[in-house]
Amino acid sequence: xxxxxxxxxxxxxxxxxxxxxxxxxxxxxxxxxxxxxxxxxxx
Length: 43
What we know:
The chain is mainly α. It has one domain. Helices cover 65% and strands 0% of the residues. It has three helices and no strands. The chain has helices at 3-11, 15-18, 23-37. The longest helix has 15 residues, at 23-37. The chain is elongated and about 30 Å long. The two termini are 16 Å apart. The relative contact order is 0.18.
C-alpha cells in the first residue's frame, strides 16, 4: 500500500486531498479517467 494512502486514511481525509501528487493518488486518478472514458485497464 502506498504510504500516503495509509496516512490519509489515518487522518480521515481522502487521498487526493491529502496528497494528490502521491503514487497512490495518481493511480486512482488514472483508474477514474479510464472508467469515465470506458477504457479497459491493463492491470
